[in-house]
Amino acid sequence: MINRDYILRLAEAIGRELSFILKLRRRDNDEEVLIYIDDVLLRTVGMTSRFLNSLSDEMLVKALSPIDRLNVEAALWIASLLQEEAAIYTARGNSSEGYYRSVKALALYLAASQQEPLEEAPFFQERILNLLQTLADYELPDSVKQQLFAYYERIGHYGKAEDIFFELLEHGKTIALLEQGRAFYQRLQAKNPADLAAGNLNEMEVAEGLAQVEKLL
């Protein structure tokens, strides 16, 4: 695991680049900004925006995991810069390009959070929250919802995790997904009532959720 101090230093380095990008955007020359973002991508991860956006979310994560372990630093640089591209395309009225870049960025943030304590870096937490707000009116791919399900549980937002779980169930009640749900509720049963309440669930809701999953299984 990369240590917390490194995550914070990385957040600071990315934040400096994003501050400069914001200054460029104030010149109202989007093409200049997109070229600069491409230059930063080449400098930091050795890949262009065009190449990164040609890959599916799953393929991009795999490309950044050459030894079955995500290159977290590269993932966070790419996520942050694609998020900036998304904002530019959305502002220009190209919501489709904005959506796809936002989803890729979210998938990378969530993948990185599985390995490193991004919740301890307010910078990345705010970036993730902004993406979730941006995508609130859109349907997310199931692969991203799976990541979001795990992410919400990890940061203690149990009610939101449950909501995502039931959204996934609507798309297909597979044995694997139901087993995930059962394990989720069993983990919640070990939490104390105060922790559950902080995560917007209570013991009765956990018991009801587990019973529902058991019935489906």
UniProtKB/TrEMBL annotation:
Do you know which InterPro entries this protein is assigned to?
DUF6483 (IPR045507)
Q: Which Pfam families match?
A: DUF6483
Task: Report the superkingdom from the record.
Answer: Bacteria
Protein name per its UniProtKB record = Uncharacterized protein
Q: Which organism is it from?
A: Tengunoibacter tsumagoiensis
- Lineage, please? Bacteria, Bacillati, Chloroflexota, Ktedonobacteria, Ktedonobacterales
